[in-house]
Amino acid sequence: MSSTPESASPVVTRFAPSPTGSLHIGGARTALFNWLFARGRGGKFLLRIEDTDRERSTPEATAAILQGLTWLGLDWDGEAVSQFDRRDRHAQVAHQMLERGTAYKCFSTQEEIAAFRAAKEAEGASYAVFQSPWRDADPASFPDAPYAIRMKAPRTGETKISDTVQGIVTVRNDQLDDMIVLRSDGNPTYMLAVVVDDHDMGVTHVIRGDDHLNNAARQQMVYDAMDWQVPVWAHIPLIHGPDGKKLSKRHGATAVGDYQALGYPAAGMRNYLTRLGWAQGDAELFTTDQAKAMFGLEGIGRSPARLDFKKLESTCGWHLAQGEDAALLHEIEGYLAAADRPALTSEQRDLLVRAMYCVKDRAKTFPELLDKAHFALTSRPVDVDEAAGKALDPVSRGILGELTLRLQNASWTKQELESILTEVATAHGIGFGKLAAPLRAALAGRSATPSVYDMMLVIGQAETIARLQDAAA
Ligand code: GLU
After folding, report:
1. Ligand 1 pocket residue status of 51, Cβ below 6 Å
2. In this predicted structure, what is the pLDDT of residue 109?
3. Three-state SS for 47?
4. Are the C-beta atoms of residues 14 and 47 closer than 8 Å to each other?
5. How far is the C-alpha of 448 from the C-alpha of 455, rounded, in Å?
């Protein structure tokens, strides 16, 4: 296979969250797309915390974002980069732009800028791009005063963004102002910081929400001003709620941590989020390795994806059924901690792993799975709920008592258990169902359980007999 120049250069993607809140489901999907794209191409996936807004950025939010990514299994290469820590480098680039003549010192004060706008408005303009009088001023005329560094933006023509998802997006240059890259207090602006960081981090593909599409035009000017290679842009449509409206809290959980606490398996979340706004043929259910192999920017749709909780659940159900028992146990422990539920004892852990084969099939979430595994996790005396208790009457208790005797010397295989139960039912002239109901009550205290054989095999002979004796008494 011949390799194109593009496939020859290593792919570097990044996720660049602002740490002002928890990791949102939309952000998680952006991170996932970047991760899949890089991991499927032997590339790098980097993490940058955009913490330049000192008032709104918090260490708690950073921790929550890292935690959410870790839960989803989205590992990043190297240390997370702090954008704030790189402010000297951002300022340095602003000064390099001055030297290159692609930026200039602007001494205009806030008042002068406001006055410029007011004058334009008085002339009838609805919005006026500020035109600084310092753009072409003679340095000899510079006052000894603080200045901002502004980009010398083109005033005529158009800036074209070639976006992999959105196509060619054209912005008229007279709509773009000479944006400030370094404020008069010496602080770099966000728009500069993003570009400098992406450039320095070697980012080849910027995959992010389309709420940043407008920024791309201005960011591209910074690349051009520095003669840097513009990355491949891919602006992905946002996620909407099931009703097609912008996703918000009223649609349900929006923070990734909430999904962990609700007991969705990470592999299911990854699969579901991959399909949220991306498609390849009719692939719906796939492993993460398959997703890495399939994922590409060409499969990203142009219209907003709708969150569909039913589909999320069925996807998660498929992944639970596929899950490897020890890995599921590990994840369940994480779920219990996230949901503030009591941790498993070591005995419960062992029993849960033994029960996994008969409980992971029809569960869609971990709480559902644990509910099905209740028989294995509970201990004697088993609490019998009202519905199940109805099956325990003097006659059925008598039969259970008899059954305990028959089970004493049984070899503990499904085959033998089947023949014993069939014999006992036949001897009493009752159908198997009539026998299974009190058995379920005795073994699990509930009427909806895995099969009585599975329960007996999982908890073992001694415990089965003890529970039957409890119920018979
Ligand atoms: N920090 C921005 C955000 O959280 C992302 C910027 C980017 O991806 O370029 O929305």
Report:
1. no
2. 95
3. strand
4. yes
5. 12
What's the CA gap between 31 and 276, in Å, rounded?
A: 13
Encode burial over 105-133: b for 16+ CB neighbours within 10 A, e otherwise: bbbbeeeeeeebeeebeeeeeeeebbebe
Task: Confirm or deny that 414 is annotated as ligand binding.
Answer: no
Level-2 CATH architecture, domain 386-472: Orthogonal Bundle (1.10)
Which ligand 1 atom is the nearest neighbour of the CA of 14? 8
| pLDDT value, residue 8 | 59
**CATH for the 93-182 domain, from 3.90.800.10, 2.40.37.20, 2.30.110.10, 3.30.210.10:** 3.90.800.10
The rounded distance, in Å, linking the Cα atoms of 405 and 399 is 10
pLDDT confidence of residue 1: 37
Q: Which residue puts its alpha carbon closest to atom 7 of ligand 1?
A: 16
Residues in the chain, total: 473
Whether 194 lines ligand 1, by a CB cut-off of 6 Å, is yes
pLDDT of residue 4: 44
**Collapsed DSSP state (helix, strand, coil) of residue 41:** coil
Domain spans of the chain? 93-182, 386-472
Q: 17 CB under 6 A from ligand 1? A: yes
Do 377 and 352 touch, CB atoms closer than 8 A? yes
Q: Is 216 exposed, middle or buried (0-12, 13-18, 19+ CB in 10 A)?
A: buried
The tokens 């010398």 sit on which residue? 152
Q: Is 284 helix (H, G, I), strand (E, B) or coil?
A: coil
pLDDT along the chain (473 residues), means of 10: 53 98 95 98 98 95 97 98 98 98 97 92 84 95 97 94 97 92 96 98 98 95 97 96 89 91 97 97 96 98 94 98 97 97 98 98 96 97 96 96 95 96 95 95 97 98 98 92
Tokens linked to 346: 């070591």
Flag whether the pTM goes above 0.85.
yes
190: CA distance to ligand 1 center in Å?
10
Q: What is the DSSP letter of 188?
A: B
Q: 49: which strand partners?
A: 82
* Ligand 1 midpoint to CA 217 (Å): 15
Q: Would the CB of 208 count as within 6 Å of ligand 1?
A: yes
- What's the pLDDT at 42? 97
Instruction: State how far the Cα of 228 lies from the Cα of 186, in Å rounded to an integer.
Output: 23
Q: What residues act catalytically?
A: 249
Which residue out of 34, 51, 194, 239 has the highest number of ligand 1 atoms within 8 Å of its CB and is therefore the one to mutate?
Answer: 194
